[in-house]
Structure formats: C-alpha cells, structure tokens
Design brief:
By secondary structure, the chain is α+β, with helices and mostly antiparallel strands. The protein contains 7 helices and 4 strands, in the order ααβααβαβααβ. Strands 1-2-4-3 form a 4-stranded antiparallel β-sheet. The structure holds flavin mononucleotide.
C-alpha cells in the first residue's frame, strides 16, 4: 500500500474477530513507533492476555457508565465494549515530562498507519487509560519507574459486526499566509 492510501484508508475500527494478529504483524507495527516524530521518552506495552484484556474492558465500561456526558452515552450504546473485542492493545506510557501526550500521539498514529498498511483494523483509544492508571492495574504493566499510560491502540482483524463510525465530515480548517 502506498503512504497516501494508508492515510486515506485508516479509520477507527470498532469491532474485531477473536483471531490474534501474527507475531510478524505485531513486530512490524511496534517497530515503527520509534520512527515517529518524537521529543521525549516513551514506553510500549503490548497486552494480548485475553483475561487481562477482558478485565480492562469491563472495568473501563463500568467507569464510563458511572461518568457523565459523552463517555456515558458511548458506554450505553447497545453492544458497546470499550475494547471492541480487539485481541491486542498496545499501550504507550511516558514519564510526566513536557510533550508527553504529543510523543504518545505521534507513536500511536504511526503504528495505526502501519496496521492499516498491513490490512489490519486499529483504533486509537484513551478510554481504557482510566483503568490502566489504577494502582493495582498499573503495577501489572511492569512499566519503567515513573512512567504512566497515556494512550492505547487496539489492533486486530476487523469483524463484520462492529459499531459503524460516521464518515469524516469535510471541514474547512486550513488557511494560507502567502
Ligand atoms: C486522543 C484520541 C483519543 C481517542 N479515544 C477513543 C476512545 O477511547 N474510543 C474510541 O472508540 N475512539 C477513540 N478515538 C478515535 C476517534 O473517535 C476517531 O479517531 C475520530 O472519531 C475520527 O474517526 P476515524 O479515526 O475513523 O477517522 C480517539 C482518538 C484520539 C485522537
């Protein structure tokens, strides 16, 4: 796939098959995180333990349902699961330093494009972060000292059954100073 095809074909996938991605696909995706624009340290954790993923999903859903506004609305949708049954969750963690969230976003976006290039579905997620920062869950991530989870990327094979996303609206948000 050409670069522009990957950019134009990437979209958030909100429904996955049980089948795990291959080790080759996972390595290819994780490796590009360190090719993204970057201004500081980050750490990548790959979670594929099914029981742990279910626990993260269920705890996140409970928190979302107990919240207000958009999060609660999303979690109340029929069939909504925060991890959408994805078999792989890649978590990017950083220390509390300037540009931490930007560094995480750059690496996640680059990995999402790699996943698209490989024909895999992906979805940038922050909703599970509220669960991953719980002290007992955080310990199980075995992160370097001082690192905290910032963003996640779900990866897997796209299911026929999924929450459909509305097409991206055309927006007029560019100006030129010539
Ligand atoms: C910082 C950030 C956090 C996001 N968190 C979530 C999330 O928790 N759950 C989810 O389903 N999508 C999440 N998304 C995906 C956005 O909803 C999605 O990218 C946006 O609606 C555009 O749709 P597209 O990715 O299909 O083009 C997040 C995206 C970003 C950039």
């Amino acid at each position: 796939m050409e670069t522009f095809d990957a950019i134009n074909n990437r979209k958030s996938i909100r429904g996955y098959n049980d089948e795990q991605i291959t080790e080759e696909e996972l390595s290819a995706i994780v490796e590009v995180a360190n090719k993204a624009p970057n201004a500081g340290p980050f750490h990548i954790t790959v979670i594929q333990d099914k029981e742990f993923l279910t626990e993260i999903n269920d705890k996140t859903k409970i928190k979302m349902l107990a919240s207000k506004g958009f999060m609660k609305e999303r979690a109340s949708m029929p069939g909504y699961e925060p991890l959408y049954n994805a078999p792989t969750l890649i978590v990017v963690s950083t220390p509390e330093v300037p540009f931490a969230e930007i560094n995480a976003a750059c690496s996640i976006t680059t990995m999402a494009l790699a996943a698209t290039d490989l024909g895999l579905g992906s979805c940038y997620v922050v909703s599970p972060i509220q669960t991953l920062v719980e002290p007992d869950v955080l310990l199980r991530l075995e992160l370097p000292e001082g690192f905290v989870p910032i963003s996640g990327l779900l990866v897997g094979y796209e299911s026929d059954v999924k929450i459909q996303s509305p097409p991206r609206a055309d927006v007029d948000n560019v100006n030129y100073i010539l």
